[in-house]
Amino acid sequence: MKTFFRYQVKEYLFYTTLFFLLFSFIITLVKGIFGLQKLFELNPSLKEVFLYFGLLFLQLISFTLPLAAFLGVMFAVHRFKEERELLGFFSLGFRVKDFLKPLLFFICFVFLLLFLSHFYVVPYVKKLQKIMKFELTKRQFEEPLTEKKAVPIGESYVIYVEKTKKEKDVQEFERVVLLEKGLEKKQVFLAEKGRLYPKEGIFTLYQGEGFSLSKDKSVEVLKFGEYQFALVIKGVSQALEFGRGELSFVELKDKLKEVKTNRGQWFRYLTEYWDRVFYPLSVFLVVFQGFLTALFIKSHNRIFLFLTAVALYVVFYVGYQFCQSLAENGKVYPPLNFGLFYVSVGVLLLIETWFLFKKRHYRIYL
Fold it and tell me: Which of 202, 218, 254, 284 is spaced 20 to 30 A from 112 at the CA atom?
């Protein structure tokens, strides 16, 4: 019996690890490539690029781990059927209920990993990502600008200077072109000279012209002898303000007290708070569903099995996101909302289990 137990758990772990690494690598690569353009605007080093991908890999654990466990169990059971191992187990006197003990042990192990990652690791990683972006933006903002090269500053500005000189806390420029990409309009400034105070974020242009293009295609022209404005750099001017997904559980509790008078914010933070508790529990439902599906499905085609698994997981995940959205909007009290969702899915699983084991009298397609 111990050999049977260890063998089952080992197979589940093998396929889960395989799918986890595969999905994590693909999703990290795709998502990372799409975000590289904004990252390169901050002029990161090669080490910081690798750190960016590493943090992204860790951030995705909450999504890829339950999906990998779900597919891992399905494909492990499918292999038992394909290679007639399941038939061999039954001929040795094992029954379907004997598979439940190693399955439960495996689910509890994955639950522990998912709980630690979703509760502690992912929020901390998101916080590190914001700190990294903040430091890159701050460093880029304070270092001397490169001459004769268009240099992005944050997400809203691009600057070109022919000559630059830094003295203490002031940067001075000659022949400046500054592009500001705003939501309502785009502005271009051409000036003979410029001066930047990085710490204060004050930029002064001398002897130049400004052109403003609004959404309705109207153009405004401005001539100036001296033009001073504050560079609003997202991530520097606002300092480090962390979102709800970046806060620890204790910080979330404190934040809930702060925003109690704001009903909209309070529900969003409360939803995040309870999501940390309820989301890891999803592994019990999805993995058991994977076990039942693989055990009773007629098809021997692995592609069909994979597509079925993905479809089932997407239905569950979309349902969870829908309930989360209802909770964030204050439609339903968050813990009650999550609780009802899990009870509903659990009842459906019990009905499915009763139908498969009682109505069909354990008729498994081998």
Answer: 254
Cβ atoms of 306 and 15 within 8 Å: the answer is: no
Give the H or E element holding residue 196. Answer: strand 185-197
In the structure, what pLDDT confidence band is assigned to residue 111 with cuts at 50, 70 and 90? very high
CA distance 95 to 75: 19
Burial (Cβ within 10 Å: 0-12, 13-18, ≥19) of residue 201: middle
pTM of the model: 0.77
Q: For residue 282, what are its two tokens?
A: 């999803």
How many other C-beta atoms lie within 10 A of the C-beta of residue 317?
15
H helix runs in the chain, sequence order:
2-40, 46-59, 61-82, 85-91, 100-116, 122-142, 249-258, 263-278, 282-296, 302-328, 334-354
Cα–Cα distance list, 360 to 172, 356, 365 (Å): 82, 5, 11
Those residues whose C-beta lies under 8 Å from the C-beta of residue 90, and which sit 6 or more positions away, are none
Amino acid 191 reads: A
Do 59 and 125 contact (CB within 8 A), yes or no? yes
Amino acid identity, position 154: G
Contact (CB, 8 A) for 205 and 197: no
Show Cβ contacts of residue 8 under 8 Å, excluding neighbours closer than 6 positions: 76, 99, 102, 103, 106
The two structure tokens encoding residue 170: 């002031």
Spatial separation of the C-alpha atoms in residues 130 and 241, rounded to whole Å: 9
d(CA 334, CA 271): 5
Per residue in 191-201, pLDDT (tens digit) is 888 888 766 66
Pairing assessment for the beta strands 219-230 and 151-153 based on DSSP bridges: unpaired
Question: Under DSSP, is residue 175 helix (H, G, I), strand (E, B) or coil?
Answer: strand
Cβ-contact 104, 124 below 8 angstroms: no
Per-residue confidence at 140, pLDDT binned at 50, 70, 90?
A: low
* Torsion, Cα of 288, 291, 293, 297 (10° steps): -160
